[in-house]
Amino acid sequence: MAAKPPRCVLRLPESGAPGDFGGGARALVLDTNIVLDLLVFADAAVAPVRALLDAQRLCWVATPPMRDELERVLAYPQIAPRLAFYGLTVGQLLQSYESQVRWVDVAPRVSAVCKDADDQHFIDLAVAHRAILLSKDKAVLCMQKRLLALGAHAATAIVVEANGWTEASPLATLATPCAVQMA
User: Fold this and answer.
1) Which pLDDT value is given to residue 11?
2) What is the pTM of this model?
3) CB 95 within 8 A of CB 136
4) Cβ neighbours of residue 18 under 8 Å, at least 6 residues apart?
5) Which residues are within 8 A (CB) of 97 and not within 5 positions of it... i.e. 6 or more apart?
6) What is the C-alpha to C-alpha distance for residues 50 and 39, in angstroms, rounded to an integer?
7) Residue 169's pLDDT is what?
């Protein structure tokens, strides 16, 4: 039996705290694979993210280059059949993406440099906004300690817990701390 990944409990910010985007919403940066999980595949692992976004406890921040990367990935030959299977078009997905993100300026380069240059803009944005960065990319996840030192958190998923039990649906527990499952 595999050991559970360690968790870091993060409280959602007080209004006006670093990383707060109004009303206690914590800044969130999603890499492109997580965006696909959220918008295309409706992966159960991102259900807490969806619920926290809907409840405005997280604020998804993005830049135009991130949108451009998503558009490029949606054109991959292995993605087109999946979009068709779910009855989605590239235009619909980009429109959904654009309506859900809070557009921010491209962040300046930070001292923590990612081995994968394509992921650097996610790192930079997470640090600039003291955000939670959700990614499945090993090049990003291996930077967890360096990002934490810069005020950002890299994780694979968000899990909302209440009374020591992981809730399948976080809607009833949004006032509780948010536990970020670290890879």
Assistant:
1) 57
2) 0.82
3) no
4) 130, 151
5) 35, 39, 62, 67, 70
6) 10
7) 37
**Domains defined along the chain, listed by start:** 7-181 (3.40.50.1010)
143 is written with which tokens? 């930077």
Q: Using an 8 Å Cβ cutoff, are 91 and 117 in contact?
A: no
Shortest CA distance to 71 belongs to which of 110, 42, 38, 98?
A: 98
Q: What is the pLDDT of residues 9-58, one digit of tens each?
A: 555 555 445 454 556 789 999 999 999 999 999 899 899 999 999 988 89
* Tokens 């921010």, residue located: 104
